[in-house]
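Onboarding guide, step 5: your first structure request.
Type a short instruction followed by the sequence, for example:

Predict the 3D structure of this protein.
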Amino acid sequence: MGDAEDPIGINDKIEILSTDDQRIKTVGELLSSDSSRTILKLLFNDHMTANQIAQKTETSLPLVMYHLKKMQDAGIVTISSTGKNTKSHDMKYYTVDKFAIVILPAGLSEKAKSSKSLHNSFNRIYRFATIGGAALATWFSSQFIQHQQTVVYESPQNTDSMMKAAPEMAQRSLPAPEVPQSAQDAGIQMYQATTGEPTTDIYLSLIITLSVVVVGLIIERIIRARRK
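The system replies with C-alpha coordinates like these:
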Protein backbone atom coordinates (compact mmCIF):
# COMPACT_ATOMS: atom_id res chain seq x y z
CA MET A 1 0.00 0.00 0.00
CA GLY A 2 1.62 3.27 -1.18
CA ASP A 3 1.95 6.63 0.50
CA ALA A 4 -0.87 8.06 -1.63
CA GLU A 5 -3.30 5.54 -0.15
CA ASP A 6 -1.99 6.07 3.37
CA PRO A 7 -1.47 9.85 3.73
CA ILE A 8 -1.25 9.85 7.55
CA GLY A 9 0.97 6.77 7.85
CA ILE A 10 -1.66 4.62 9.56
CA ASN A 11 0.12 1.45 8.39
CA ASP A 12 2.90 2.19 10.86
CA LYS A 13 0.37 2.72 13.67
CA ILE A 14 -1.37 -0.68 13.48
CA GLU A 15 0.12 -3.90 14.80
CA ILE A 16 -1.60 -7.04 13.51
CA LEU A 17 -0.73 -10.16 15.53
CA SER A 18 -1.69 -13.73 14.84
CA THR A 19 -2.84 -16.05 17.59
CA ASP A 20 0.48 -17.92 17.24
CA ASP A 21 2.57 -14.80 17.87
CA GLN A 22 4.59 -15.04 21.08
CA ARG A 23 4.19 -11.30 21.68
CA ILE A 24 0.53 -11.80 22.61
CA LYS A 25 1.60 -13.06 26.03
CA THR A 26 3.72 -9.94 26.59
CA VAL A 27 0.86 -7.68 25.50
CA GLY A 28 -1.49 -9.47 27.90
CA GLU A 29 0.94 -9.01 30.78
CA LEU A 30 1.28 -5.32 30.01
CA LEU A 31 -2.48 -4.70 29.82
CA SER A 32 -3.05 -6.57 33.08
CA SER A 33 -0.63 -4.27 34.93
CA ASP A 34 -1.94 -1.02 36.39
CA SER A 35 1.50 0.58 36.10
CA SER A 36 1.82 -0.34 32.42
CA ARG A 37 -1.63 1.04 31.59
CA THR A 38 -0.84 4.29 33.40
CA ILE A 39 2.41 4.67 31.46
CA LEU A 40 0.61 3.97 28.18
CA LYS A 41 -1.98 6.66 28.92
CA LEU A 42 0.79 9.19 29.43
CA LEU A 43 2.71 8.21 26.32
CA PHE A 44 -0.40 8.29 24.12
CA ASN A 45 -0.49 12.07 24.57
CA ASP A 46 3.15 13.03 25.04
CA HIS A 47 6.83 12.22 24.60
CA MET A 48 8.41 11.65 28.00
CA THR A 49 11.65 10.42 29.55
CA ALA A 50 11.71 7.55 32.02
CA ASN A 51 12.47 10.00 34.83
CA GLN A 52 9.49 12.19 33.89
CA ILE A 53 7.23 9.12 33.83
CA ALA A 54 8.52 8.03 37.25
CA GLN A 55 7.78 11.48 38.72
CA LYS A 56 4.37 11.74 37.08
CA THR A 57 3.22 8.27 38.16
CA GLU A 58 5.05 8.31 41.51
CA THR A 59 6.68 5.00 40.54
CA SER A 60 10.29 3.98 41.09
CA LEU A 61 12.59 4.56 38.12
CA PRO A 62 13.74 0.90 37.88
CA LEU A 63 10.11 -0.25 37.66
CA VAL A 64 9.36 2.31 34.94
CA MET A 65 12.40 1.13 32.98
CA TYR A 66 11.22 -2.47 33.34
CA HIS A 67 7.78 -1.66 31.88
CA LEU A 68 9.27 0.44 29.08
CA LYS A 69 11.60 -2.41 28.12
CA LYS A 70 8.65 -4.82 27.98
CA MET A 71 6.67 -2.36 25.84
CA GLN A 72 9.57 -1.93 23.46
CA ASP A 73 9.91 -5.69 23.10
CA ALA A 74 6.20 -5.90 22.26
CA GLY A 75 6.52 -3.12 19.68
CA ILE A 76 4.08 -0.84 21.53
CA VAL A 77 6.50 1.87 22.66
CA THR A 78 9.45 3.34 20.81
CA ILE A 79 12.18 5.93 21.45
CA SER A 80 11.08 9.07 19.63
CA SER A 81 14.17 11.22 20.28
CA THR A 82 17.25 11.66 22.44
CA GLY A 83 18.29 14.77 24.33
CA LYS A 84 20.74 16.01 26.97
CA ASN A 85 20.01 16.86 30.59
CA THR A 86 21.72 19.53 32.71
CA LYS A 87 24.61 17.13 33.39
CA SER A 88 25.06 16.42 29.65
CA HIS A 89 23.76 12.88 30.08
CA ASP A 90 21.67 11.30 27.33
CA MET A 91 17.90 11.29 27.87
CA LYS A 92 15.67 9.01 25.84
CA TYR A 93 12.14 10.20 25.06
CA TYR A 94 9.50 7.49 24.73
CA THR A 95 6.15 7.53 22.98
CA VAL A 96 3.47 5.06 21.90
CA ASP A 97 4.37 3.54 18.56
CA LYS A 98 1.08 1.77 17.76
CA PHE A 99 -2.38 3.30 17.49
CA ALA A 100 -4.07 -0.10 17.64
CA ILE A 101 -3.26 -3.79 18.10
CA VAL A 102 -5.38 -6.32 16.22
CA ILE A 103 -5.27 -10.04 17.08
CA LEU A 104 -6.50 -12.39 14.35
CA PRO A 105 -6.33 -16.13 13.62
CA ALA A 106 -3.09 -17.25 12.05
CA GLY A 107 -4.67 -17.81 8.63
CA LEU A 108 -6.15 -14.29 8.46
CA SER A 109 -3.36 -12.16 9.90
CA GLU A 110 -1.29 -12.04 6.69
CA LYS A 111 -4.34 -11.22 4.57
CA ALA A 112 -5.37 -8.50 6.99
CA LYS A 113 -1.97 -6.83 6.73
CA SER A 114 -2.59 -6.25 3.02
CA SER A 115 -6.33 -5.54 3.35
CA LYS A 116 -7.17 -2.12 1.95
CA SER A 117 -10.61 -1.98 3.58
CA LEU A 118 -9.19 -2.65 7.06
CA HIS A 119 -6.60 0.10 6.70
CA ASN A 120 -9.22 2.49 5.34
CA SER A 121 -11.38 1.82 8.41
CA PHE A 122 -8.50 2.62 10.76
CA ASN A 123 -7.74 5.70 8.69
CA ARG A 124 -11.25 7.01 9.36
CA ILE A 125 -11.11 6.12 13.06
CA TYR A 126 -7.76 7.87 13.40
CA ARG A 127 -8.99 11.03 11.67
CA PHE A 128 -12.25 11.21 13.64
CA ALA A 129 -10.36 10.64 16.88
CA THR A 130 -8.08 13.55 15.95
CA ILE A 131 -11.08 15.78 15.22
CA GLY A 132 -12.70 14.82 18.53
CA GLY A 133 -9.49 15.53 20.43
CA ALA A 134 -9.16 18.93 18.79
CA ALA A 135 -12.79 19.75 19.62
CA LEU A 136 -12.34 18.82 23.28
CA ALA A 137 -9.14 20.84 23.51
CA THR A 138 -10.91 23.85 21.97
CA TRP A 139 -13.83 23.56 24.42
CA PHE A 140 -11.66 23.39 27.53
CA SER A 141 -9.36 26.16 26.26
CA SER A 142 -12.28 28.53 25.60
CA GLN A 143 -13.78 27.76 29.02
CA PHE A 144 -10.44 28.44 30.72
CA ILE A 145 -9.93 31.73 28.87
CA GLN A 146 -13.46 32.89 29.69
CA HIS A 147 -12.98 31.96 33.34
CA GLN A 148 -9.76 33.99 33.49
CA GLN A 149 -11.50 36.98 31.89
CA THR A 150 -14.34 36.73 34.41
CA VAL A 151 -11.91 36.78 37.33
CA VAL A 152 -10.08 39.81 35.94
CA TYR A 153 -13.38 41.60 35.32
CA GLU A 154 -14.76 40.91 38.79
CA SER A 155 -11.64 42.15 40.65
CA PRO A 156 -12.13 45.92 39.97
CA GLN A 157 -15.86 45.46 40.50
CA ASN A 158 -15.22 44.12 44.01
CA THR A 159 -12.90 47.06 44.74
CA ASP A 160 -15.58 49.55 43.69
CA SER A 161 -18.16 47.82 45.87
CA MET A 162 -15.86 48.08 48.90
CA MET A 163 -15.33 51.80 48.29
CA LYS A 164 -19.08 52.32 48.10
CA ALA A 165 -19.73 50.28 51.23
CA ALA A 166 -18.80 53.06 53.70
CA PRO A 167 -21.50 55.60 52.75
CA GLU A 168 -24.04 52.80 52.44
CA MET A 169 -23.24 51.63 55.98
CA ALA A 170 -23.74 55.18 57.22
CA GLN A 171 -27.10 55.42 55.50
CA ARG A 172 -28.23 52.13 57.01
CA SER A 173 -27.67 53.52 60.52
CA LEU A 174 -30.47 56.05 59.86
CA PRO A 175 -34.11 54.97 60.22
CA ALA A 176 -35.43 53.83 56.87
CA PRO A 177 -38.53 55.61 55.55
CA GLU A 178 -41.64 53.58 55.16
CA VAL A 179 -42.22 52.36 51.63
CA PRO A 180 -45.60 51.23 50.35
CA GLN A 181 -45.98 47.49 49.91
CA SER A 182 -46.82 47.89 46.22
CA ALA A 183 -43.53 49.69 45.59
CA GLN A 184 -41.61 46.95 47.43
CA ASP A 185 -43.29 44.26 45.30
CA ALA A 186 -42.43 46.15 42.13
CA GLY A 187 -38.80 46.45 43.21
CA ILE A 188 -38.56 42.71 43.91
CA GLN A 189 -40.04 41.90 40.49
CA MET A 190 -37.57 44.24 38.76
CA TYR A 191 -34.63 42.66 40.62
CA GLN A 192 -35.72 39.15 39.70
CA ALA A 193 -36.22 40.14 36.06
CA THR A 194 -32.71 41.55 35.73
CA THR A 195 -30.80 38.67 37.34
CA GLY A 196 -30.07 35.29 35.80
CA GLU A 197 -27.26 33.01 34.69
CA PRO A 198 -25.42 34.31 31.59
CA THR A 199 -25.40 31.85 28.69
CA THR A 200 -23.51 33.90 26.13
CA ASP A 201 -20.14 32.40 27.11
CA ILE A 202 -21.47 28.85 26.82
CA TYR A 203 -22.98 29.55 23.39
CA LEU A 204 -19.68 31.10 22.24
CA SER A 205 -17.74 28.01 23.37
CA LEU A 206 -20.21 25.73 21.57
CA ILE A 207 -19.94 27.75 18.38
CA ILE A 208 -16.12 27.66 18.42
CA THR A 209 -16.06 23.93 19.19
CA LEU A 210 -18.59 23.09 16.46
CA SER A 211 -16.60 25.21 14.02
CA VAL A 212 -13.51 23.11 14.73
CA VAL A 213 -15.52 19.91 14.17
CA VAL A 214 -16.97 21.21 10.89
CA VAL A 215 -13.55 22.30 9.59
CA GLY A 216 -12.12 18.90 10.56
CA LEU A 217 -14.89 17.07 8.72
CA ILE A 218 -14.38 19.24 5.63
CA ILE A 219 -10.66 18.43 5.65
CA GLU A 220 -11.47 14.73 6.06
CA ARG A 221 -13.82 14.89 3.03
CA ILE A 222 -11.17 16.65 0.97
CA ILE A 223 -8.60 13.97 1.83
CA ARG A 224 -11.06 11.22 0.91
CA ALA A 225 -11.95 12.92 -2.40
CA ARG A 226 -8.30 13.27 -3.37
CA ARG A 227 -7.68 9.59 -2.66
CA LYS A 228 -10.46 8.69 -5.08
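Each response can be followed by summary notes, for example: The beta strands are 14-18, 48-49, 77-84, 90-96, 100-104.
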